[in-house]
Amino acid sequence: MSDDFPTATSTEPATPGTDRTAVRDEYRAGTGEDGTPRLTVLAGPTAVGKGTVSTYIRDHFPQVWLSVSATTRAPRPGEQDGVHYFFLTPERFDELVATGQMLEWAVVHGRHRYGTPRPAVEAAMAEGRSVLLEIDLQGARQVRDAMPEASFVFLAPPTWDEMVRRLIGRGTETPEEQQHRLETARMELAAEPEFDHTVVNDRVERAAAELVSLMGLPAR
Ligand code: 5GP
Fold this sequence. Notes:
Layout: H1 19-29, E1 39-43, H2 50-60, E2 64-66, E3 70-71, E4 86-87, H3 90-98, E5 102-108, E6 112-117, H4 118-126, E7 130-134, H5 137-146, E8 151-156, H6 160-170, H7 175-189, E9 197-200, H8 204-214
Parallel strand pairs: 1-7, 1-8, 2-7, 3-4, 8-9
Antiparallel strand pairs: 3-6, 5-6
Helix pairs in contact: 2-8
The structure holds guanosine-5'-monophosphate (5GP).
Guanosine-5'-monophosphate binds at residues 46, 50-51, 69, 73, 104, 106, 108, 114-116, 134-136, 138-139.
């Protein structure tokens, strides 16, 4: 379990008259110089490929600061603590929620808890980075309440059948879990109108590039 969960290090008050002040003002406004929101939330139905798109962005677009979520679920083979998630005990997760260190959190698929570590996100924004959160719909709604100026992007499947194929094809869940995820996905698809933009995940590279351009960053 992770002991190196990021804590608040760079959230001290700004000193007037330093460059830091300008960055802080920008952070408060939540936008960069061109008016593009600093924080972008990527959400969408289960198995639409949010994880694949965000991994592609992490590997190809270093100009994007991708938040590493915390979760109470166990790591899957190949997943590294602090890289894919911070794998926490339920007690540690509770503690972080109780001390206000989660920007948002939710029980996903009725089982495990997932949340966005607040201090790391705030520090990245204060540094002027373009921040991306890949979270579920419940989390996206919480961020919208807390930071309505953020940009909300819905990742949509090309078709429902394609989404089912991707979910079953992944083979990492039991049939009961798959059924539960499909039911959740059906409800999640209906949330598209709540979002500022929709990106169709037809090809990972294309969808990632479109998302990066929506963030106001060069996407070569
Ligand atoms: P998985 O267990 O397959 O990695 O992720 C399951 C779901 O959890 C995905 O729908 C993903 O978007 C969501 N998720 C991952 N991190 C977070 C987070 O920090 N907050 C919320 N609310 N959902 C998350």
